[in-house]
């Protein structure tokens, strides 16, 4: 084969791969494969001749070694909850899939050192529960936590709702075990807070979207469980007021400010209309809302006092027009549920063109003003539902189609609108992907917006780690010709 | 030249390098070069034909381009405060030096986005002051902050005394500008909290000790200034008690615990004896001490109450035998000064064999017991002065020579004792360099203790970024033959 990556594996080769994991874990049945091929937004439709479910790092190593020797492309997959088509195979077919779903061992929970060692197949919610059982917190939290797996969360450097205080997945990981494309196993499962011994290989694999190797296990950081927790929902007049309130909240709360989420009026309307159990918690109507989340080490009273201080000061400064504070955990959960339903609530409203961008926090009002004007000029009547992690500068700038418009025609303008909105974010020093990654969705755009040397360096790393080009080809970087 | 790296540059080539920065910034005078060649512990004695002081990233680029074309080794240097001989030239001579000391611009301080953009030559103390003037905190703090420069601090991923709450330099940096060995400039000066757009180049350059390129500028993170600050000094019975107290302090204070430093009795004696202005703050004598540092967002009273709670609980549990709380900023500074004088105070006591290691926090008592036994067996009468950042698992396990012993004969056992102590740390899952890095001092040992694949991956990265092998050769990795 002159260009093995362009050819589908032969039946004989598939048998060799299957023998590495045993027939029970080599899936070829169409119905069984379907959920692994379905990409979250339905924008991509990949196919695969076989899905492998290795039960150990050694089996992963055997698969990658054979893949490198035979030039067989391998697509690793975690919980398949990603939004950029990074974990599904390409449409052309021929990509073998490797699911980490059987690597679910939780080996060690150390409440003194605040670490947890687990397999890449563990589901986020299970890790959260296991930490809680040890009296500790694993703070990563996001909408898909019931099915997202640690390996995928690491490979996309997942963010979510607690990044403001605790950081992304990158900041929550101390060590990794990675199987390299050549089949070697790197054991970097260190539980150390400080370790300056050479190049930072860990952070190179985190966020690499499975293009440099397969993460098989990780050491995660745990935290003391806060004793105080308060969630409030504040009605605001403008994005600029939201920014001013964020500054005050951050100043008063310091690291106790665990969330500051921005939501528009239209998002509250969409969720109230379409999501069971969600209702507008206020009688009055406001153009913008902030969800403020505080976690304090000391006590429930400490958190209450802090929230009262922030809201009172915000009110006195004319920033907070109305506010409700969750009286208990159930009410707090309901407020977060509204926030997490912002994206799903757009579905019944027709097509939605989405963005996951970031700008420097101080630039959010300028970004919103410029983007709104440009989008409404391009698509009069478009319903902009921009929400997100204001404290991180991360806006999910989503646009629902005009009422009554043709959905397919609207969605056909996805890339055109992306280009308009991303140009505004980039002008302000922003990023075209804050937390979802690149995958297939933004691969070509990344190459366009980042200077040549940056892509060149990434390509050099890719070639150095994966000389056969087998690891998740065509994701993040274009496939080498 | 068949092996250009082994030859010193010709006079003609030196002239070409000098012309890139102008004669005023191309130093060849022996007296003027001396401070750049002096390594902090006097273990290495390098020489150089010329030190270049570029005034811009463009001049750095011109230097590296010419170096790559001519195979001339370049050693970048910041404030020359490192402890592993990573920033001084090799003894063989022929290495050109590049100081970033003229890159001292502070371009942008954004108190809303909490970022500061500065040149790699800025001195840490100046950055701290500039942040303070903007009502913000830049938390990195270490003994040499009056002369250490940002470029060197990034290249060694410096730690210091506030890592527990704020992280190492890696966690305090959002973006970089780096000149590559080939002379290309990577502008990664992003001020974004979230940016998932490909491989994490930033973290690859941080901690690379100048072997992959020259960091010329950085975006640093700022923080709100805490309103409450408390420092206490507690007398303890054992390392195990110190660990138990740390756990309680972390549980009560959460992210408000900004420092938890361990010190032995002998360290308090050494500092009281040799460091002007330092005195034992307690009348009673204890085998171990902890310095506890709290920073709270809310108020001075909040920090006081929290410290009282931790000390009272520690006392009730039989962990804290005596404690003093600093009554004002001057007293707090005096307690920190004692801690920071632990290493210099060993100098008048003769030779000192040093370690900068880390283990999982929970393993510190086991490490100390095993290391003490092994060291005292090897060198009866050795005076172990082990202190450090307990909350980070980072112990500076330093050993002063026996009273009256021959200093040269004692120091001749440096590597033998390192091997004994490091083996114990590694057995416990530890690291041979927690915060100082590898440089020349630990280069060969790193290659021994880390599995082959890890060094292989680092070598592949090095070769991909620096094909001519000009960047700080022989540091971190052995020079390629």
From TrEMBL, chains A, B:
Domain of life from the UniProt record: Bacteria
Domain FAD-binding PCMH-type: 44-225
InterPro entries found in the cross-reference section: FAD-bd_oxidored_4_C, FAD-bd_PCMH, FAD-bd_PCMH-like_sf, FAD-bd_PCMH_sub1, FAD-bd_PCMH_sub2, FAD-linked_Oxase-like_C, FAD-oxidored/transferase_4, Oxid_FAD_bind_N
Swiss-Prot/TrEMBL keywords: FAD, Flavoprotein
Keyword check for Flavoprotein: yes
Pfam families to which the protein is assigned, alphabetical: FAD-oxidase_C (PF02913), FAD_binding_4 (PF01565)
Database matches in PANTHER family: BLL6224 PROTEIN (PTHR43716:SF2), D-2-HYDROXYGLUTARATE DEHYDROGENASE, MITOCHONDRIAL (PTHR43716)
Stated family: Belongs to the FAD-binding oxidoreductase/transferase type 4 family.
Name assigned to this protein: Hydroxyacid dehydrogenase
Species name: Xaviernesmea rhizosphaerae
